[in-house]
Amino acid sequence: MSAQRVRRKETPATRDPWKGRGEDHAEAEDPFRDASRADYVYRQMRQAIRDGHFRQGDRVREEDVARTLGVSRTPVREALRQLQSHGLLDVAAGRGLGVVALDRPQVLELYAMRALLEGAAARLAAQHATPAEVAYMRHLLEEFRRTRDATRHAAINRALHEAICDAAHNRYMMQSLQQLGDALALLQGTTFSVKGRPASADIEHKTIVDAIAVGDPDAAEVAARAHIRNAESLRLQMMPL
Ligand SMILES: [Zn+2]
């Protein structure tokens, strides 16, 4: 599969940009269009995994994804390769490509890393957040309080953690958290469906945002780490032993 890709890229001289427009092979040879389509497929797949349309261990077939999303197989192949390299898909013996099934030790590893990175993001945000960024975080806190729906809570929670990451103003932090956020899509269901969790998370979020607002990096980091630790213990309770 990858050998074919390489061969095609190595022979650009054979390509006539005007010939065969609209045909399948011409579409497959436009790297820019393929790149944006691959990105689209990647995001759709990540969301489908997050929403549980694909369950852990489910097989993922290139042709099925291409047909469902109405794109050619080239961007699908690229997106699946990226999902594999980011740890969302893997190849299991006798099964082909499938959604990674996280075991308990992997979940612990994921949360350990998340606690460190979210803590560091909150610390940097306390040093660098603008008043507008803090105002946006407070707006999200209000939104979170207004909703009664667990899926919506999870979406607003993601937006809040992204806002904290943005306010850190560090592109490497952003990359690391984005990649970790992709892996979090494998944790299906949401801890916000646990009774009492939206209320306790709201208090924890407010503690983090207050520390960022007053520019207290130590307090922001401690609060963010504690928040992730609490999410972790709920997540472990939700997992089968
Ligand atoms: Zn949170």
Can you walk through the features of this model?
The protein has 241 residues and is mainly alpha-helical. It has 2 domains: 2-99, Arc Repressor Mutant, subunit A (Orthogonal Bundle); 104-238, Up-down Bundle (Four Helix Bundle (Hemerythrin (Met), subunit A)), CATH 1.20.120. 69% of the residues lie in helices and 3% in strands. It has 11 helices and 2 strands. The protein has helices spanning 2-10, 24-28, 31-50, 62-69, 73-85, 104-128, 131-146, 150-167, 171-184, 197-213, 217-238; strands at 89-92, 96-99. Strands 1-2 form a two-stranded antiparallel sheet. A hairpin with a 3-residue loop joins strand 1 and strand 2 (96-99). Helix 7 (131-146) packs antiparallel against helix 10 (197-213). The longest helix is centred in the middle third of the chain and has 25 residues, at 104-128. The two termini are 38 Å apart. The model is unreliable at 1-28 (pLDDT under 50). Bound molecules: zinc ion (ZN). Zinc ion (ZN) binds at residues 157, 161, 201, 205, 227.
